[in-house]
C-alpha cells in the first residue's frame, strides 16, 4: 500500500502535466479532472496488488490517463474540438492582414487536429504541446517509438494537407 506522503508527492509532481494533456485531448476541464482523479485512484488500487517501481509511476499515470480518455471519447462517440492556446507574441509590429492570416491558420490547424483519431491526437499533443521526447511518449503509452513517429507523421500530413487546401503554401 502506498503511503499518503508518496501519493501527495506523485500528485504534486505529475498532476499538472497530465491534467494539461487530458484537457487538450478531451477538450474540457471537467472530464479532465475526473479522469485525472481516476488515474490516481487506479494507482492506489494497483499498488494494493502489485509492487510499484518509482521509475515507472509517470508512465503508469500517463497510460492510465490515455486509456481512460480514449474510453471516454469512445463512449461519447464524438470528437471534441480542441483549441490551440494563443502564444504570447508582441503584436505591435504585426499588420492587420498578418493577424487575420495567423488567426485563420490557427483555426485551420485546430480543426485538423480535432479530426485526428484520439491516439494520434494524443501523441501529437504530447510531442508538440508538452515537448515530450518520442521515446518518453512511447514508454508512457506502452507503444513503440516507430509507432509514435508514424502517428506524428500522419498528424503533420493531415495538418499540412488542410493548410494547403485552404490556400497556405507549405
Structure commentary:
- α3 (57-76) crosses α6.
- The protein is mostly helical and 170 residues long.
- The protein has two domains: 4-76, Orthogonal Bundle (Rna Polymerase Sigma Factor, Chain: A), CATH 1.10.1740; 96-165, Arc Repressor Mutant, subunit A (Orthogonal Bundle).
- 74% of the residues lie in helices and 0% in strands.
What's the helix and strand layout?
Layout (H helix, E strand, L loop, with lengths): L3 H23 L2 H21 L7 H20 L19 H20 L2 H12 L4 H8 L3 H21 L5
Tags for this model:
170 residues, 2 domains, Arc Repressor Mutant, subunit A, elongated, 0% strand, Rna Polymerase Sigma Factor, Chain: A, mainly alpha
Short overview:
The chain has helices at residues 4-26, 29-49, 57-76, 96-115, 118-129, 134-141, 145-165. It is mainly α. It is elongated.
Number of helices: 7
In the CATH scheme, the class of the largest domain would be Mainly Alpha
Write the CATH architecture name of the largest domain.
Answer: Orthogonal Bundle
Number of strands: 0
Amino acid at each position: 500500500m502506498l503511503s499518503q506522503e508518496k501519493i501527495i508527492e506523485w500528485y504534486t509532481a505529475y498532476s499538472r502535466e497530465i491534467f494539461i494533456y487530458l484537457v487538450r485531448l478531451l477538450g474540457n476541464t471537467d472530464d479532465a479532472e475526473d479522469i485525472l482523479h481516476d488515474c490516481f485512484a487506479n494507482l492506489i488500487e494497483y499498488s494494493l496488488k502489485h509492487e510499484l517501481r518509482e521509475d515507472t509511476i509517470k508512465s503508469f499515470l500517463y497510460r492510465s490517463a490515455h486509456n481512460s480518455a480514449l474510453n471516454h471519447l469512445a463512449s461519447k462517440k464524438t470528437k471534441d474540438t480542441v483549441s490551440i492556446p494563443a502564444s504570447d507574441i508582441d503584436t505591435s509590429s504585426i499588420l492587420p492582414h498578418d493577424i487575420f492570416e495567423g488567426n485563420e491558420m490557427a483555426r485551420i490547424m485546430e480543426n485538423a487536429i480535432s479530426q485526428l483519431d484520439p491516439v494520434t491526437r494524443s501523441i501529437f499533443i504530447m510531442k508538440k504541446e508538452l515537448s515530450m521526447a518520442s521515446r518518453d511518449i512511447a514508454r508512457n503509452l506502452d507503444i513503440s517509438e516507430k509507432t509514435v513517429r508514424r502517428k506524428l507523421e500522419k498528424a503533420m500530413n493531415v495538418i499540412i494537407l488542410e493548410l494547403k487546401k485552404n490556400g497556405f503554401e507549405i
